[in-house]
Amino acid sequence: MSFTDLGLSAEILRAVNEKGYTKATPIQHQSIPPILSGHDVLAGAQTGTGKTASFTLPLLHRLQHGTVNRRRIRALVLTPTRELGAQIGQSVRDYGAHLPFRSVVIFGGVSINTQIQKLRKGADVVVATPGRLLDHMQQGTIDLSAIELLVLDEADRMLDMGFIRDMRRIVRALPAERQTLMFSATFSKDIRRLAADFLKSPVEIQISTNGKPADGIRQVVLPVDKRRKRELLSHQIGAGNWQQVLVFTRTKHGANRLAGQLEDDGLTTAAIHGNKSQAARTRALADFKSGKVRVLVATDVAARGIDIQRLPHVVNYELPHVPEDYVHRIGRTARAGHSGAAVSLVCVDEHKLLADIERLLQTRLERRVVEGYAPNPRIKAEPIPQGRSKHMPSKRSGGGSSRPSGAKRPGGRRKRSSRRSAVTS
Ligand code: AMP
Known about the structure:
Helix 2 (26-36) runs parallel beside helix 3 (51-65), helix 3 (51-65) crosses helix 4 (82-95) and helix 6 (130-139) packs across helix 8 (164-172). It contains 17 helices and 14 strands. The protein has helices at residues 10-19, 26-36, 51-65, 82-95, 112-121, 130-139, 155-160, 164-172, 189-198, 229-239, 252-264, 278-290, 300-303, 323-330, 351-361, 393-397, 421-424; strands at residues 41-44, 75-78, 103-106, 125-128, 149-152, 179-184, 203-206, 217-223, 245-248, 269-272, 295-298, 313-316, 340-346, 366-367. 47% of the residues are buried. It has 2 domains: 3-206, P-loop containing nucleotide triphosphate hydrolases (Rossmann fold), CATH 3.40.50; 217-367, P-loop containing nucleotide triphosphate hydrolases (Rossmann fold). The protein is α/β, with parallel strands linked by helices. It binds adenosine monophosphate (AMP).
């Protein structure tokens, strides 16, 4: 469907045109009209479907045509990670290029003072991660009393990351009279409960069923022994002449180790995970996008929301513990209609994880044994250390947060938000 039929303003259509988009994606054409007419929306869509524009475009339109309340924060987008926050912030700037709105992105890990200064100058849109937003709320450095529109992006991931109490605290502090949009890749019971609490008679939109990956992703499993994975990966990158490869590991330590080994194999490599500074992560991502770095090794949380046009290859060096993470990971490729390949190196220890993924996808993935790398049948499966994964009961039951919500450490800084990231990011 063409964008011109959706009811967006000329200024927004101009920006969309400048981005080079010709047709609205399914999530865009289904969600933009109800959002424009003021409905709450509950949308099931994963990254790669064009979901960011599906809320950003109508959000800007609503601001443009609503009450004139200049430089008061009228729209708030909550998002789980800094990377996603930065990308949504960029989308707001891109799509709002011909509108007078100012936006501020707020996330942890960087100076709060710079954010305070920006907020003081006034903003119409704020994009924030929950932890740092609460810091601002507690310090009285942000005024959310004029919010008309709230977007909860990747709500399922915010729950997984233990943000439930933070989200509730934030939403409680917002005007009750507002429009709320909730986007989530999956619809668990918890998400449904949250939607029931936050949304009023929402229009429900479901784009992909069962968290299925986008069409256009070729998925293949390469069976291999654990100790030969690195060698096989280097071989695949070289033999296939892959120039831009995003590789997933389960742990930060694993990401660092693999990045070092690939460097030793002569591949320019960077690693991103939760232990890296924001500056290091931003630099690694920029180097990867520009082609300076050929391989980016990442953990699930760090990679969340990475948006690279036409990223051709995603590799699961280790399968994730949580099957939905597989879908998120491979969603980095084949974005917005491009094609891409998702390659999983699977050792005998991971057969159960693979079975879980195939059950979620309701499909059996193609296996291809690479010559010279056939697994040794005598090697027996060993248990994979779980770490503090989200399957552990304490993660699910504790009300969502390892810290008392909003609590500060003695030093005044909030404890890092993600319980999951304690081990896996
Ligand atoms: P998202 O699902 O929001 O992460 O978007 C995935 C990618 O698709 C981003 O790089 C967007 O810039 C791009 N995109 C969004 N909408 C469209 C569209 N209508 N046509 C082409 N590309 C799009």
